[in-house]
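Action item from last week, closing it out:
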Amino acid sequence: MGITGASGAVVARRMFQMLEADERVGRIHLVISGSGLKVLREELDLDVSKSSGVASELLGQPARKTIYLLDSDIGASIASGSYPVDGMVVIPCSTGCLAQIAHGVSSTLIERAADVCLKEGRKLVLAVRDAPFSRIHLKNMLAAHEAGADIFPVIPSFYHHPKTIDDLVTQFCCRVLAHLGLEQSIQFHWEGEAR
């Protein structure tokens, strides 16, 4: 799981909580960009100054199955295609990170791990968070999609009648996790109109 510097720290935190709670998930590799850490501080008031405690601080309790990796560690396990992972989500994915991934530029661990997923044919979900999208953003989304990434912008749904921001965030994260093959029992499913 990669977290970049786009607004949307609440979505990243909820995704991480759901991954940690899901018994089907064996190990989580968490990578947060420098600007992602800044957004976590600004939007969630988290103390992410010590890398040893970032995962637990984001989770709100000790992380059981997460390995926290520095974004500067391009020699980390997930930087190699020979290291087995099932997939990757970058949430939120800044348009800068999107551009790097779309064009095969791997100067950080998040970008390299995403590139590895693409080259190995593994699931890569980019939860792009920005608005409005410029022509450059749209072209980069198309380029990333053509390379094999799934573009999943952080756009909430309303058909489940959310009452709180957490309802919106949780349903969005459920949809992303279902896309990764980790369907959640709490996800609302539209059943159509009875006639």
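Closing note: The chain has seven helices and six strands.
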